[in-house]
Write a structure and sequence with these properties.
Keywords: Membrane, Transmembrane, Transmembrane helix. By secondary structure, this protein is mainly α. It is 69% helix and 0% strand. The model has no long low-confidence stretch (mean pLDDT 86).
Amino acid sequence: MSAHTTPARHEEQRAIAPIRWPRPSSGTVVALVIWLVGVLVSAIVPLALLGADPYSAAPGGRIAVGLTFTLVGALIMVFSAYLLYRKSGSIGAAILAFVPSFVMAVLGILMATMKVLYGV
C-alpha cells in the first residue's frame, strides 16, 4: 500500500456524522413560555382596556391600569430573559429577549402619553 492511496471504507462506517437536531432544554422552554406570558400581559390587556386607536380618549384610571399592565408585562419579559441567560449562559439569547421588553415598555409609555394628550 502506498502513502497516497486512501484506506478502504467498510460499509458500516459513515463518512458524515449523524445529524442531531438541537433540542431545547426544559429551562429554555419555560423561559420562552414566561416571555410569551409577558408579551400577552403587556400587549393584549392594554389593548382590551384602551382600544387600538391612539387618538381616542380614555379615562385616566384606565390609562394608569393599561400602563401598569404594560410595565408589569415588560418586567416579566426581563425576568424570563434573565432566566434564559442563567440557563444557557449566552448573552446573545438574553439580548434577544431583553430588547423587546424595553421596546414594549417604551411603547406603553408612548401609548399612555397619547391617550392623556388626546383625552384633554
